[in-house]
Write a structure and sequence with these properties.
mainly alpha; 67% helix; 169 residues; 10 helices; Tetracycline Repressor, domain 2
Length: 169
């Protein structure tokens, strides 16, 4: 991918692109971030009445072509990070934070309903599925599918939230 190719595809000049994105790397991070943010709308999260139901309701199936396209885009981000560690924060903000924020909201609702203990570490646990999904895509090059999500929710997230933290001395 070159800025020339992007400009041609966008029917815009390279100068227009560089005014918005000072580098190709920043353009890629922003594009992947928009792709991820478009998948979760924190203003309209599901409310099934249970945390498990809410977390699973966030899942949107995708075609094999779409899954492969997303994996390739995320792999491009990994390549950027391997060449310039300064992109790590941007990649985390684009790939993990929108989903972690949504999970935090859903977990906070579950606390408010009394479904999980108020002592549950929802700040940490809300990052588990998004981080594992990023790992799955970036390192394992596997799509995020419903089977993986169910496994994470049932085997990791819900048990972690059920365990109340010991009082600190």
């Amino acid at each position: 991918m070159t800025m020339d190719m992007v400009a041609q595809h966008a029917h815009a000049g390279k100068a227009t692109l560089y005014r918005r994105w000072p580098s190709k790397s920043e353009l890629i991070i922003d594009a992947v971030g928009r792709m991820k943010r478009s998948q979760v709308d924190v203003e309209h999260l599901p409310d099934t009445g249970t945390l498990r139901g809410d977390l699973l309701a966030l899942f949107k199936s995708q075609s094999a072509d779409e899954a492969e396209r997303r994996i390739r885009a995320v792999a491009g981000v990994v390549s950027l990070i391997s060449h310039d560690r300064s992109f790590s924060d941007s990649a985390h903000a684009a790939l993990v934070e929108p989903w972690a924020d949504a999970h935090f909201i859903l977990m906070k609702r579950a606390v408010d309903r009394g479904e999980i203990p108020a002592t549950a570490d929802i700040q940490t646990v809300s990052n588990v599925v998004p981080t594992m999904a990023a790992y799955r895509a970036l390192v394992l090059r596997k799509p995020f599918d419903l089977e993986f999500l169910v496994s994470m929710v049932d085997s990791v997230v819900l048990p972690a939230l059920d365990n109340t933290r010991a009082e600190q001395p």
